[in-house]
Amino acid sequence: xxxxxxxxxxxxxxxxxxxxxxxxxxxxxxxxxxxxxxxxxxxxxxxxxxxxxxxxxxxxxxxxxxxxxxxxxxxxxxxxxxxxxxxxxxxxxxxxxxxxxxxxxxxxxxxxxxxxxxxxxxxxxxxxxxxxx
Length: 133
Known about the structure:
With about 130 residues, this protein is an alpha+beta fold.
């Protein structure tokens, strides 16, 4: 029960929720995975699912669509005051009916990069939220 609650609490955080929304409306991700894209529980037994360092953390979230599945990798910067923000997100395809395996194997699709796209919330508002309404 605590594990389930921790999963829900993690995905309910605004930065994570926004990152997942950005993925679900990303044209490349929609093409490779199909619509709708769903996210699943992090495998806490996988030591690479959550990696924490001094001022950085990475999360590996399983995602799936009707055309394929993979992992959504989030890179998070943690400030000294313990606030944090997503600075990069990438989609790792494990299987898709849209490409041959050698076309995606060992590659990542960049979904969001703070250096290129700016603030995640502003990027979401400009590119996702406005396209929904």
